[in-house]
Amino acid sequence: MALASFNAMKKSRDNRAGWVSVHKAAKELGVSVPTVRSWISKGRLEGKVAPVVRKHMLINPASFENAFKVECRWCKKVFTAKHPEIAEYCCRSHQILGTQKKRRRQK
User: Fold this and answer.
1) Closest to 80 in 3D by CA, of 95, 65, 94
2) pLDDT digits (tens, 9 = 90+) for 13-36
3) How far is residue 89's CA from residue 78's CA, in Å, rounded to a whole number?
4) pTM for the structure as a whole
5) What is the overall mean pLDDT for the chain?
6) Strand 57-59 and strand 20-21: pairing?
7) Alpha-carbon Rg of the chain, whole angstroms?
8) Nearest to 72 by CA among 63, 83, 80
9) Whole-angstrom Cα distance, residue 46 to residue 95?
10) Among 23-32, 46-55, 72-81, 92-101, which stretch is predicted with the lowest mean pLDDT?
11) For residue 62, what are the CA distances in angstroms to 12, 18, 39, 41, 103?
């Protein structure tokens, strides 16, 4: 019985090769753990459930480079944002143009 559980643990460790935990990903990206979890649920980061008894997420480090990528609402250019959850425009001039267009629609 003990040998079977040891082999199962060894297999689960092999499946995790190349993947990092939510806490390590948050530390590497410089964001909070809930932010990493929300990015996984939105598809911004590639994550999977680890093969353990309790629910534990693992993240593919290759998806880190896309975590801060956002598409500009005005020119559709993909840019890197410090806060991708609230970024909408790639530059200030596009933000002004987008706001003016929104105000014209409201009138």
Assistant:
1) 65
2) 445 568 888 899 999 989 999 999
3) 10
4) 0.57
5) 80
6) antiparallel
7) 20
8) 80
9) 30
10) 46-55
11) 20, 9, 14, 17, 40
